[in-house]
Design a protein that fits this description.
The chain is mainly alpha-helical. Helices cover 64% and strands 7% of the residues. The protein has helices at residues 25-35, 37-56, 100-156, 159-169, 174-206; strands at residues 63-69, 88-94.
């Protein structure tokens, strides 16, 4: 039994940086840094800590106190300010003054909270960049594999007709035509897998 071997050189892949769709690597990193929800949340937390720092060492706000003494609630003068000469109104302002050690401790705590928030923001930025870079690389290679396979399929497209012609001329057996069709079908299945892989990696990069 003769077996028909098909040899077809693959097109050389370019050595320049691949594109993950139209999105370049540097642009993907820039977008992730600007748009990642987790980074926005961490940045807002750091801003809140930064805004609270000046107030940490300040004295509490003064309190305004109002009161009425000896206001009649029973008897003939009940409910009247004019009938009882002992009724007096009080207006006062009070100010709590915590000792310097407490104010210093509050300031130190606020600075520590700010430093922790900024460190968390930096760590999250690095995590987002690494995750984005890996997702972009996975997508780029998935697209390269798909492009290479599509190129091979395009170049192998004339083979079924050529195999049928060989059978008609007696140069090949009918079983060899079936082998060609099966081989092409297997490549088409692989192409479908790669298309799904590209779509999956694009979704991951988008996230």
């Amino acid at each position: 039994m003769r077996t028909l071997f098909l040899a077809m050189p693959l097109l050389a892949l370019p050595t320049t940086a691949a594109l993950a769709g139209p999105l370049r690597f540097e642009e993907a990193l820039a977008r992730a840094e600007a748009q990642a929800p987790s980074l926005r949340a961490k940045a807002l937390e750091a801003d809140a800590r930064r805004s609270a720092l000046p107030a940490a060492g300040q004295l509490p706000d003064p309190k305004l106190g109002l009161g009425i003494d000896n206001f009649p609630v029973s008897g003939p003068p009940a409910g009247s300010f004019a009938e009882d000469s002992m009724t007096m109104a009080r207006v006062g302002i009070s100010q709590e003054v915590p000792n310097a050690a407490k104010r210093h401790a509050r300031t130190t705590r606020a600075r520590t909270d700010l430093a922790a928030a900024e460190a968390t923001l930096l760590s999250e930025a690095r995590r987002v960049k690494v995750a984005t870079a890996l997702a972009w690389i996975d997508l780029a290679y998935a697209e390269r594999r798909l492009a290479a396979l599509e190129s091979v399929l395009s170049r192998l497209a004339p083979l079924p007709s050529a195999a049928k012609a060989s059978v008609s001329s007696g140069a090949a057996r009918p079983a060899q035509t079936l082998q060609v069709q099966q081989s092409l079908a297997a490549l088409e299945d692989r192409r479908s897998e790669l298309v799904a892989a590209v779509a999956r990696q694009r979704a991951i990069l988008s996230r």
